[in-house]
Specification:
about 90 residues; about 70% helix; elongated; DNA-bd_dom_put_sf; Helix-turn-helix domain-containing protein; HTH_17
């Protein structure tokens, strides 16, 4: 009988952990949905760069787009971080 109670206790712990994981994932997904995005034109305009420069940055992994439909989109927070890093480096 004690093995049965131990098994139930383990299952309850697993359920609690799964609920915590699910809650964390839902919060993260909500934050990502609230994130502002920029398309390639907006990024080029923001940095005042040519599209070949943006393409080179993508190849060099300086900036990484997310594909949304047919468009490359960029997180605004990531773009601002790149700008801040470039100011620190100079």
């Amino acid at each position: 009988m004690t093995k049965f109670f131990k098994l139930i206790n383990i299952l309850l712990n697993v359920e609690t952990l799964l609920q915590q994981i699910l809650t964390t994932l839902n919060k993260q997904q909500e934050l990502e949905q609230e994130e502002e995005w920029m398309d390639a034109y907006e990024v080029r305009d923001f940095f005042k760069i040519h599209r070949s420069t943006l393409y080179r940055w993508q190849c060099e992994k300086i900036i990484e787009p997310s594909r949304m439909g047919r468009k490359n989109m960029y997180r605004k927070s990531h773009i601002q971080r790149i700008l801040e890093q470039s100011h620190r480096d100079t």
